[in-house]
Amino acid sequence: MSAKILVAQGGGPTAVINQSLVGVVLEARRQAGVTAVYGARHGVRGIINEDFVDLGQETSHNLELVAGTPAAALGSTRDKPDAAYCHKIFTVLQAHGITHFFYIGGNDSSDTVRIVAEEAAAANYPLRCIHIPKTIDNDLVGNDHTPGFASAARFVVQAFAGANLDNAALPGVYVGVVMGRHAGFLTAASSLAKKFEDDGPHLIYVPERVFDIDKFRADVKATYDKYGRCVIAVSEGIHDADGTPILSRLAGDLERDAHGNVQLSGTGALADLLCEEIKKTGIKRVRGDTFGYLQRSFVGCVSDVDQREAREVGEKAVQFAFHGKDNGSVAIKRVGYYSVNYELIPLATVAGKTRHMEDEFIAASGTDVTDAFRLYLRPLLGSNLPDAYRLRPNAVAKVLNKG
Amino acid sequence: MSAKILVAQGGGPTAVINQSLVGVVLEARRQAGVTAVYGARHGVRGIINEDFVDLGQETSHNLELVAGTPAAALGSTRDKPDAAYCHKIFTVLQAHGITHFFYIGGNDSSDTVRIVAEEAAAANYPLRCIHIPKTIDNDLVGNDHTPGFASAARFVVQAFAGANLDNAALPGVYVGVVMGRHAGFLTAASSLAKKFEDDGPHLIYVPERVFDIDKFRADVKATYDKYGRCVIAVSEGIHDADGTPILSRLAGDLERDAHGNVQLSGTGALADLLCEEIKKTGIKRVRGDTFGYLQRSFVGCVSDVDQREAREVGEKAVQFAFHGKDNGSVAIKRVGYYSVNYELIPLATVAGKTRHMEDEFIAASGTDVTDAFRLYLRPLLGSNLPDAYRLRPNAVAKVLNKG
After folding, report:
1. What separation in angstroms does the CA of A362 have from each of A246, A269, A321, A358, A359?
2. Contacts of residue A163 in chain B, CB cutoff 8 Å?
3. Residue-level pLDDT at A43
4. What's the fold here for domain B3-147+301-350?
5. What number is the ipTM of this complex?
6. Is the confidence at residue A339, as pLDDT, over 90?
């Protein structure tokens, strides 16, 4: 029996999504009966446009180099297919005689895979459909964590470790805005940047908790009074009790995307607006950074654990397809501290659902994480995480002002 | 003859300024006759407050670990001492019997060293004063380049290499705003992120050239029409023909620092305002990032060449002080491709002066750099610079839409 493979990448790029791509390609190329391994350019959009590349003509050596390169080597898309769009996808797959469809992406992508699988079943067309997890937001249900998250988390940790040192050298208030519209995992990762008791981030705001601007100012003031400085990690998705994004409340008219969502990334507005609020407390030196696209695309900041797992979910996807009989989504399950296994879970389990930070991961204060979260995250960050050192206090006696 | 050493760090922290500190400390500790090696907390402010730590009681092992940590381990300051402030500095040095004063910083810091040296000379007090170069802006005259620049440049290169990949995966316009009020070296470094002809950054705007907003929009539009996307590197210090910062022109009331300068860093406003300008051309997906403090403080992105040289300028400062008879500023001179020597140049040569990008480094278009600049920068970035790979084109024939 001959097989034709199609693989595509969807949604926001990550540091390791190409590992998953190459995991699929190399594993597919070694399966008996596989006559073609195609890649669609720019996700589902490339499928409906029949914009395919033949990955059977790519050298193994170059594939390995691409695997180590961030972003999405096939290109990606923000298209969120509806039923009609999915029907077009199916029509193209059928026309090209595709027997196995692999889509690497987040919860929207898994929903696309689910609908295409239903189209194929309804048409009685033999098509194996596998979703491969990917998202820096870590918001896929059924997974201990998702490929891409750990490397972005590592970037956030290294960024806050440095911002904390910089803020200690030139004291003031520093606000760092982190990606994550609905899930606070990436913002919470900043907590791993703390080494000493007085290190920042001193305050962490995730979208799983209601953000109150008055309490925020009071939190910052209290921290500043205690340490003479304050480092703050804020999720771009913070919102008030009604669910209105704080960015919308503080700012005026804002760009909305095809999904009707306010544009949160690619703008420094939230950090700037929060800085203005902080200045109302009378604190002078207030600085805000928005980590923006750097946190998902920066070349050279990657977790080796993330790389390995991203590669494996791609490989396992092909193995599940060729050794099993079900469609599904590859899920990462934690076993031991630290190791993982992979399972194929039903597409409906993952599709279109959003995981949030579990309550046990958020401290009662609402502005910190728990040890359970620290323990959860640490192994994902991988090896050779940079460490920060400080001089030990050996004060010299004053001569002029002995008082 | 006994000697007492004081070392301090001033201005914006860098990834390698602690290498210079440790270079001074370890080299000073091994000099015959040295009875004390003190560090001032938070630069000149720590001096006038007699806030000293005894670095003779610090272990060599911990000093080595601190050397590898970014920011300023002693703390820094933005104070820009006037004559009265410098007199206070001298009074404290005299009271503590300091014989050798080392100040690690930029052109403002070298001016402080110059004035303090004059105070000492006027009082006939034997004080050796050495300025040790440091600045991510690379704007010190008399130096081939300055410690701290190369690591920040490496961050900018890795950031744009990733941003380019991300932008290729999800096409649109991307604006990255880079530090550098007067000198465009750091923004120009983004050019080293280009590997293929169609890679970004496609446009680079430095403060050495007048920024025209209409030409900017036209440049972006033309690039977008050619490549279907556009990646832009912009210096925070871009200004119009009158020298007015573009941020001031596009925005309203802005915070000014003690030097009367508009606050350019720690705000995402310039990127956001440029994005608004670009949207006027009709381009839909426009995203802006401001690299902010990450580019000077990020833990784990450092040039090994920069580390080595930052260490050596600290060591050489002590050797010039103990083996020579002049005050001065340690300067890096390039010899061969690639190696450096160190010279002690007069404080007045460096003090308060600003180096700009040389004309031979800027392309005639005004939006790119020359090969001379690429050749100049590459060795500074150090070894193991991450590289980006792409799939090779092997298009599959269309089945449905053969036209």
Report:
1. 20, 26, 38, 7, 5
2. 293-294, 297
3. 98
4. Rossmann fold (3.40.50)
5. 0.95
6. yes
The stretch A161-180 carries a mean pLDDT of 97
Average pLDDT over residues A213-234: 98
Residue A180 labelled as part of a binding site:
yes
Question: Where exactly does CATH 3.40.50.460 map onto chain A?
Answer: 152-300+358-381
The answer to whether B251 contacts chain A (CB < 8 Å) is: no
A364-369 long-range contacts, CB within 8 A, separation 24+: A366/A209, A367/A203, A367/A204, A367/A205, A367/A219, A368/A191, A368/A203, A368/A204, A369/A188, A369/A191, A369/A204
- Select the residue from A76, A194, A259, A293 to test the B interface by mutation, using most B Cβ atoms within 10 A: A293
Cross-chain Cβ contact B65/A389 below 8 Å: yes
Scan for tokens 């996700």, then name that residue: A43
B401 CB neighbour count, 10 Å cutoff: 10
Range(s) within chain A of domains with CATH label 3.40.50.450: 3-147+302-350
Residue listed under structure tokens 């194996």: A128
Interchain contact B70–A (C-beta under 8 A): yes
Q: Whose structure tokens read 């050794």?
A: A323
Contacts of A169 in chain B (CB under 8 A): 9, 13, 42, 71-73, 75-76
- Location of each CATH 3.40.50.450 domain in chain B: 3-147+301-350
Interface of A with B in 276-335 (CB under 8 A): 286-294, 296-301
| Residue of B166, B257, B265 to mutate, interface with A, max A Cβ within 10 Å | B166
The CATH fold of domain A3-147+302-350: Rossmann fold (3.40.50)
Q: What is the DSSP string of A121-161?
A: HHTT---EEEEEE--TT---TT-SS-TTHHHHHHHHHHHHH
**Which residues partner with A328 through β-bridges?**
A130
CATH ID of A152-300+358-381, from 3.30.200.20, 3.40.50.460, 3.40.50.1110, 3.90.1150.10: 3.40.50.460
CATH fold label, B151-300+358-381: Rossmann fold (3.40.50)
DSSP codes joined into one string, B73-126:
TT--------HHHHHHHHHHHHHTT--EEEEEESHHHHHHHHHHHHHHHHTT--
How many Å apart are CA A146 and CA A126, to the nearest integer? 29
Interface of B with A in 19-48 (CB under 8 A): 36, 38-39, 42
Q: In this predicted model, which residue has the larger pLDDT, B260 or A30?
A: A30
Q: Does A8 touch chain B (CB under 8 A)?
A: no
* Residues of B assigned a catalytic role: 137
| Nearest chain A CA: its distance from B240 CA (Å) | 23
